């Protein structure tokens, strides 16, 4: 009988421990962090490979040559974009860790409000600063999403031309890189629908793969935007909770001081009355 009671108590203790652990997790920040990492990984990985595929297409089918020296050409711009992708991957990994740690800290602070823990002004300032950064990065990812939509639109036009060339007989359409700003006006780098290079480009996997990689990168940037919105909501809620908790803590401190003063006054008067009787 005693063994059954011990087992039931141990099971109850494990259940309460699990509920306490699950309840103390900052689910909003955790979900936003996972979504942010997925979006950044998708954008950086697919964007890097899509830029590499763009370089191969320019070299193999449009015969674009890298300019000698430090001239700012399309290949130099693509290299700069790759370095930006590396920076985004590293920076937002650290930023996601900071936001997740802040979520754990705030959740513990709210749950320990009526204990010995006291909400400090430093914690509120840190939450407000992270909220400002989250809003700033939200605008950054909006710009990244808009910028990523441009190559998706251009590759969609090229992919549509390849799909519809066989349907329209006698059409003579050309892809001129000068229209996209990839080369200077003096250079003529174009591929027309009736040429052999155009058919090779359409039949190769490079064009189709690069187009779909850019689409995946656009989806990753959109996921990062949604993650930033989640972080903004979680940080705004945490900041409001911390502010209310700080006010409640001040009220409890003032109330305890008043009660202590009343207790001291009552004890002093009792001693005075006792001395008067004696």
Describe this structure in words.
The model is unreliable at 5-9 and 113-118 (pLDDT under 50). The chain has helices at residues 2-23, 27-60, 74-111, 121-164, 196-203, 205-277, and strands at residues 174-176, 190-192. Helix 2 (27-60) packs antiparallel against helix 6 (205-277) and helix 3 packs parallel to helix 6 (205-277). It starts with a helix and ends with a helix. Strands 1-2 form a two-stranded antiparallel ribbon. By secondary structure, it is mainly alpha-helical. It is found in: Cell projection, Dendritic spine; Membrane. InterPro entries: Myelin_PLP, Myelin_PLP_CS. Pfam families: Myelin_PLP. This is Neuronal membrane glycoprotein M6-a.
Strand content: under 5%
Order of helices and strands: HHHHEEHH
Could you list the spans in which at least 5 consecutive residues all have pLDDT below 50? 5-9, 113-118
Query: Would you tell me the overall average pLDDT?
Result: 79
Helix content: over 70%
Question: How many strand elements?
Answer: 2
Question: In short, what is this structure?
Answer:
This protein is mainly α. The chain has six helices and two strands, in the order ααααββαα. Helix 3 (74-111) runs parallel beside helix 6 (205-277).
């Amino acid at each position: 009988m005693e063994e059954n009671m011990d087992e039931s108590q141990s099971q109850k203790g494990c259940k309460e421990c699990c509920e306490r652990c699950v309840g103390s997790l900052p689910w909003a920040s955790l979900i936003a962090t996972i979504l942010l990492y997925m979006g950044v990984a998708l954008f950086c990985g697919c964007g890097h490979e899509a830029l590499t595929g763009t370089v191969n297409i320019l070299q193999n089918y449009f015969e674009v040559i890298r300019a000698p020296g430090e001239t700012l050409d399309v290949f130099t711009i693509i290299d700069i974009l790759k370095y930006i992708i590396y920076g985004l991957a590293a920076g937002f990994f650290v930023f996601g860790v900071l936001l997740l740690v802040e979520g754990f800290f705030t959740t513990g602070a709210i749950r320990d409000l009526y204990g010995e823990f006291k909400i400090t002004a430093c914690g509120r300032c840190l939450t407000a600063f992270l909220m400002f950064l989250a809003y700033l990065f939200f605008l950054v990812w909006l710009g990244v999403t808009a910028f990523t939509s441009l190559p998706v639109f251009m590759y969609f036009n090229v992919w549509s031309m390849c799909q519809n060339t066989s349907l329209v007989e006698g059409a003579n359409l050309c892809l001129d890189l000068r229209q996209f700003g990839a080369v200077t006006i003096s250079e003529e780098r174009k591929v027309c629908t009736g040429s052999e290079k155009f058919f090779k480009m359409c039949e190769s996997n490079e064009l189709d793969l690069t187009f779909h990689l850019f689409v995946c990168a656009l989806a990753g940037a959109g996921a990062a935007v949604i993650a930033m919105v989640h972080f903004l909501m979680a940080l705004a809620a945490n900041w409001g909770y911390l502010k209310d908790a700080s006010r409640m803590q001040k009220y409890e401190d003032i109330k305890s001081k008043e009660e202590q003063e009343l207790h001291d006054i009552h004890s002093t008067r009792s001693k005075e009355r006792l001395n008067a009787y004696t």
